[in-house]
Structures are given as C-alpha cells and as structure tokens.
Write a structure and sequence with these properties.
Distance between the termini of chain A: 33 Å
CATH architecture of the largest domain in chain A: 3-Layer(aba) Sandwich
CATH superfamily of chain B: Aldolase class I
Order of helices and strands of chain B: EEEEEEHEHEEEHEHEEEEEHEHEHH
Largest interface: A-B, 30 and 35 residues
Radius of gyration of chain B: 18 Å
Structural class of chain A: alpha/beta
Helix content of chain A: 10-25%
Oligomer: heterodimer
CATH topology of the largest domain in chain A: Rossmann fold
Strand order of the largest sheet of chain A: 4-3-7-1-2-6-5
Radius of gyration of chain A: 18 Å
Strand order of the largest sheet of chain B: 3-4-7-8-11-12-17-18
Shape of chain B: globular
CATH class of chain B: Alpha Beta
Distance between the termini of chain B: 30 Å
Largest sheet of chain A: 7 strands, antiparallel
Largest sheet of chain B: 8 strands, parallel, barrel
CATH topology of chain B: TIM Barrel
Structural class of chain B: alpha/beta
CATH architecture of chain B: Alpha-Beta Barrel
Number of domains of chain A: 3
Chain lengths: 257, 304
C-alpha cells in the first residue's frame, strides 16, 4: 500500500478518563484506504523530549467525516503535549503504515477480539469493519479497574462486550483469560494489549488450536522498515513490526512465556 | 542553480547529499516519499560477509534530541545483497555506496572483493567501528594500527573509491584519519555513532538489550562538527561529514568546517524526504551568498 506524508488538522480532542484522550484528525484530501491494524507515525514539534515520531494504531476511520481517530494514553511528554492540542491545530502524519488484521475465512464466524488498556485502540476499527461485513464479533476487554475501560459504548455498537477488571470494579474479576466467555467456542481470536495479556491469549488459542492474531507495539524509529529497531523474533528470523507487522499470527512468533 | 557537484576521489556526485547507512535501507523503503534519483548518493545498510540477525529487542531508546540504537548490523549478507537487491538498484540514477562491515579482517577483505565486481556500485564506505572478534571485541576503528591494517588489506582487493567511516569513540580521531589516509583511503567519513547508554529509572533496567548503544541525532552535532573540522585540517583526502544533520543550515556548517560531502542520517526517520530539502536549502544558501559552486564554501570557515 502506498504510504503518505501530510498535515492533518485536529477536528476534535476529547479528554477521556484515566489519562486517555481521543484525538480526531482530518484533512482536505479524501483519506486513502486504511485497514484495521494499521498505524500512523505522528510528529510532535513542540516538545524537545519527543524527538522521534510517535506511533499510534488507528482507532477508527470515519469515512463520512474524513477523520482518523487516535486513542491515546498520556504516558510521557510527547503524549502530554498532544493531549493539549486544540481544534484547528496541525499535525504531520506518515500513514497508513504496516499490515492489517486478516479477515476471517469462510469457515470462521465466531470471532473474539481481546483488548487490554489502551491496546483496545485498533480493535474498534477492526470490530467496525467486521460488523460492516456482517459478522457479530465478541469483544473481551480487560483493565485494572473500571476507570481503565475506555470506549466501551463504542464497542457495543459493533458486537457483544464482555469485561474483566483486576479489582472486580466492573465485569468479572481477574484477567481476561479468567473470563467465562472463553468457555464458548471461537473460530478466530484477535488481540492487542499488554504483552503478558497477549501471550496468555496466544497460549489459550494455541491450546485450543484457534487461529490467533496479535498486534505488537514494539518501539519504532522510522516506521517504514529502514531502521530495523522494532524487530520481533519469528520463526523466519527477526522481522520488523512496522512493515512485516504490526499484526502477526501468534504461531509465527517466538515468544518467551 | 549553483553547481552542486562534488568529488570524492574519482567518484563524482551530482550533489553533496548522501543518505547515511542504516537510516535509509536500500533507498527502496523511501520511494513513496521522495525521488531518490535526486540524491547525491545512498549509503546502503551495513553489509557483512554472512547473514546477521542483529541484537535482541529492544534496540532503540529515544534520548533528548537524539536516539540510541543497538541494531547490531542485521542484514542478509553480501551474497543476498548481490543476488537480490543489487539488480533492483540498477533502475535508479544515484550513487549507491555499500557500507561494508566485518568481525574479522578476512570478512572485510572477502566482502570488499565481492563488491568490487559490481559495476553499479561506485564506492565502498568501510565501517571500521565493528568489534574485532579476534582482538577481544575491540573495535577496529579505535586502534590506529588495527584501522590501518584493515584499510591496507581492503585496499589490495578494492580498486574503486574507498571511504573509511571513522569512529568518534577515540582519544585522537586525527591520528586514525591520518593512518587510514596513509594506507590508501580515498576519503574518510565521520562521525559514526557515539557510544552511549540509557536507563529506565523506574524499572532500574537498561533501555537497550545490549546495555550500551550508538547515539545519533542533533545532540551529537557539535561533536561531529568539531571532529570534521579537526580531520579536514589534518588530511588531504576529502572528508564526508555527518552527525545530527537535520536541515540545510546544519549541512552548510559541515561544509564550512571542511566537509566535501555530507550524510543525512537519523533525520530520515522523522522526515523521510528531508534529504531533498537539504539539497534545495544548500542551493538557496549558495545563491544567497553569491557562490557559483558548493566548492566555494568547503573549508571556508572564517577563524581570523
């Protein structure tokens, strides 16, 4: 897919709970095709400590409003600066980058999307596309507590939503891997979130021989396959998360569990 | 437009802007963002005799105005380059310079010999900052005698322009530059990355899998500029300057310090088309200063 570099304008910047915010960006040109699982590299000019571009997965693409949504958690100076951007402010993006989640095969209809923390971001776009194609995906979303559950109402538009929290403040208590929904049969699992969570889900899928895809979030410099900083070990050797991923089939990865 | 052509030994570049090894892949990664035919040259990814997997993740840490990397020369080896990548590069009109790296003297020689047969590769950039596995892992480029020896031996098998990339992690870069000049280097390029380190205070762990790594970006520019200036005064061969160049003004500073050409590295990660803006900015500067040629400003620093 052709990659672009260009300026976007902030159309909305919505503060969410627990230090998250939803940044909506638009531009005059119609957006090119973008796929669920793909990401953007965003340049932050106004802080000396954010030297490199920041990598964000695409949370949603609103084709009617010509918007890209980025779901962001404030973790450092770069994201803190971004959280203060106002409507009309300009940001430079390289987009769309990376591969994408693969669509289910004809025999796969029971789909589970498992997200944790801000890792839920790409699963909204994936869920929307799956719903558009006639699937009814199940979302299993985990967080430490109720405050860490972001965008739940948006997920509910596209499928059934199941929740776990570590402290039991919402949904079932424990980790996503403890949730009773996992007793149901699934044909395919997609996951994105903290590495231990993804590894546990990958293990679960492997035990049950369920097709499973993960979206990795390794630190990147270039985002286009030049610097070779973001590699993950696969059975074919080191591969770039930015160009060979970010989505991998879990059985391709060499993961220490 | 001013005359931007510059010469490194008998290699003529259409302009003095080269993309630095390890920051621009093989050029192909950047085709969506710029016309690479407009570049003076491209130093391709560090190439070794055998395939290398590189270091484990994490390989990168951001630092104030820069970054540390510990990629570890991941590449598929010189034969893969020759058989798979090289044929594709012939479609472009820029100087593809192969950055040659090695773990032993023999590796360097064999790799350089293989590259010598490629008609479309006009020069080698010899990366002597690699650890010599037969000398306890000390980098070739930090010892005058080891640096001289590798250049001397590669010179015997490589008859096109040989650019030797110097390590800044030395007490006296001038003595190393003179040593490689003496052994027949056609040019030196500097600086390679500076050895650095980053720690996560919360987890109390290093941020790189290798603990230490190479620092690059604008934070190294003053050091690079100083070293280019020192070396340019000490050797007769051309100096290719690099280290944190992020815009045309930075590039001009390197020319004034004595560089014949410059390389743009880490800045490519942030602005993939920055090298073309650097070329345009150099031309604008020359016209604004009534210079007909880039050669008018090389070493033109006014110190009196």
């Amino acid at each position: 897919m052709k990659k672009f570099i260009g300026d976007f304008v902030v159309s909305e910047n919505i503060p969410l709970k627990n230090n998250h915010f939803l940044l909506k960006l638009t531009q005059a040109e119609p957006l090119p095709l973008m796929l669920p699982g793909q990401f953007v590299q965003l340049k932050i000019d106004d802080t000396s400590s954010a030297f490199l571009r920041r990598t964000f997965s695409i949370n949603y693409v609103d084709r009617i409003k010509n918007e890209i949504w980025l779901l962001i958690q404030v973790v450092g100076d770069g994201t803190r600066s971004l959280s203060k951007y106002k409507i009309g402010d300009s940001l430079n993006l390289i987009y769309p980058l990376g591969n994408s989640f693969s669509m289910p095969t004809v025999t796969q209809s029971r789909l589970l999307l498992v997200g944790g923390g801000v890792g839920v971001a790409p699963l909204l776009f994936l869920g929307a596309i799956l719903a558009e194609k006639g699937y009814l995906p199940s979302f299993l979303i985990g967080a430490r507590n109720v405050d860490g559950l972001i965008e739940l109402e948006k997920f509910q538009q596209f499928g059934d939503v199941y929740v776990t929290t570590e402290d039991g403040s919402a949904g079932e208590i424990g980790f996503v891997t403890n949730h009773s929904i996992l007793k149901n049969a699934f044909d395919k699992i997609y996951t994105c979130g903290p590495t231990p969570m993804m590894q546990a889900i990958a293990q679960f899928a492997d035990n049950k021989s369920i097709d499973c895809e993960v979206s990795l979030e390794n630190k990147m410099a270039c985002g286009i396959g030049a610097c070779l900083c973001c590699v993950t070990q696969t059975h074919q050797g080191n591969q770039c998360v930015c160009t060979d991923g970010p989505v991998f089939k879990t059985n391709e990865l060499v993961w220490q569990i | 437009m001013a005359n931007l052509t510059t010469k490194i030994g008998n290699l003529t570049l259409k302009n003095p802007v080269i993309t630095a090894s390890g920051t621009f892949g093989y050029g192909e990664e950047y085709l969506d963002f710029l016309d690479i035919n407009q570049l003076g040259g491209i130093c391709v990814k560090g190439t070794t005799l055998h395939r290398r997997e590189g270091n484990p993740y994490p390989r990168m840490a951001e630092t104030p105005s820069g970054m540390l990397n510990a990629v570890g020369l991941q590449n598929k080896g010189v034969d893969y380059f020759i058989n798979t990548i090289y044929p594709r590069l012939k479609a472009f009109e820029t100087a593809f310079i192969v950055n040659v790296s090695g773990s032993t003297l023999e590796d360097y020689i064999e790799t350089a010999e293989k590259i010598n047969s490629l008609s479309f590769i006009p020069a080698i950039e010899l990366n002597i900052s690699c650890p010599n596995v037969k000398q306890g892992g000390m980098a070739f480029g930090v010892d005058k005698d080891m640096a001289a020896e590798v250049v001397k031996e590669v010179r015997k098998v490589y008859d096109k322009p040989l650019i030797v990339k110097l390590s800044p992690n030395v007490t006296d870069i001038v003595s190393i530059a003179r040593a490689v000049e003496h052994e027949g280097a056609d040019a030196v390029s500097l600086i390679n990355t500076l050895l650095g380190m980053a720690i996560d205070a919360e987890t109390q762990k290093p941020l790189l899998s290798t603990i230490t790594g190479g620092l690059s970006g604008p934070c190294v520019k003053p050091i690079a500029l100083r070293m280019v200036w020192q070396v340019a005064h000490a050797v007769k061969i051309p100096v290719v300057g690099m280290g944190g160049i992020s815009n045309a003004r930075d590039a001009i500073e390197f020319f004034l310090a004595g560089a014949t050409a410059i390389e743009v590295g880490t800045a490519n990660f942030i602005d993939p088309a920055i090298s073309l803006q650097v070329i345009q900015g150099i031309d604008d500067y020359l016209q604004r200063h009534n210079c007909e040629s880039i050669t008018d400003i090389i070493g033109a620093l006014k110190t009196a």
